[in-house]
Every structure is written in C-alpha cells, then in structure tokens.
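S1.2 Input.
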Amino acid sequence: MDKPFLMEPEMTDASPDQTMILDALEQGLALRRAGVSDGALEVLSLIVDHFQDSEDPAHFEAVSRAMMGRAMALIDSEAEDEALEALDILLSRVRGHAGLVFRELRIVAAYEAAQLLGARDEHAQAADGFAFAIDQAQGDEPAAIVHILAAAHVKLAVAQLYQDQVEATFATLDRLAERWPDSADPAIRHWVEEGVKMREALGEALAGK
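S1.3 Output.
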C-alpha cells in the first residue's frame, strides 16, 4: 500500500510539552519510513493516547499528524479494523479546519479509508471516500500529495464500475485525463495512463455487447 506524504514536524518556539510531541512525532514517522511499523505504532500511539484530548490549541496539529501516522502504521501492520476506526476519528477531528495541513490530512485519511473499504467490496462507501478526497483538492491541489489525487480518480472509477455506474465511470476517467493532460511527474502519468487504458477497455467491452 502506498505510503502517503506526511510532512516533517516543524520546530518553532514551543512549550516543553509541544517540543516533546514534535520530537516523538519525528521519531515515529521516521520509524515508519524505515519500515519499523511496531516501533512507529508504539511511539505515535503514546502521543495520541496522552494528548488527543488536550485543550491546548498548540498541540492540535501535531497530534492530528500523529493520528494519521498511527493509522498508517496500523495499515502497515494489517490491522485494518483499527486503522479504519483511527481514520474515521481523525476525519471527524479535522473536519472544517482551515489550512493546508488539515486539508492534506483529510485527503490522505479519506483516500486510505476508501482503499480499505474497497478491499472489503464496500464499493459505495469506497466511492464516497475517493470522491471526498478529490473534492477536498478542488481549485488548489496540494502539490505534495497530487499523485494521491490522480490515483483517487482511477480508484473512484473502479468503485463506480463495481456499482454499474458506467456513465459516472467514464466521467471520472475523463476528468482525470483533463486534469493532468501533460504531467511530467511519473507517478501522475502512471495513473493518467491507467485511466486511459481503463476507459479504452470499457469502451471496447460495451461496443462488443
């Protein structure tokens, strides 16, 4: 499963608690990048367990990112039920919050939850998740996770096709091609090409009926 963008903690003038949270967050994310899922889960869970209910606004962003990292470590550990619950809690937490970091968190959390739901053949809910992730980026795509948005278009189209929503599937694939027609980014180009192949195969299948 893809390991999405999770920005490095940004050190600022901070209280001792805030410094501790940021240091632990950096350690937890580094452990996950190194493939040490159990260690990452332990460190990030400590942050979440101790500070999730903190009323200090200075903690909110770092704890939210720790919650995202913890959810991803749960996915790495194949604890899908716990991961879905963690992603749902995170989405509720950051809903409506302004700022790029929170928008990125909503996009990644919705995308990852949708992938888990799709793997369970819960295609209607998966489609809702992918559509939500795409909608969060309308008009101002966060550059660091734009490849996730391209992937979300293809996976939304798959979820729609599973529900026999053929016209919606074509529309989603067309939007993908229109949105990134000439991207030089290999990751984005891969998903655009996958979308083109899917559209052509679907068109041929329908023509052969």
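S1.4 Remarks. The chain has nine helices and no strands.
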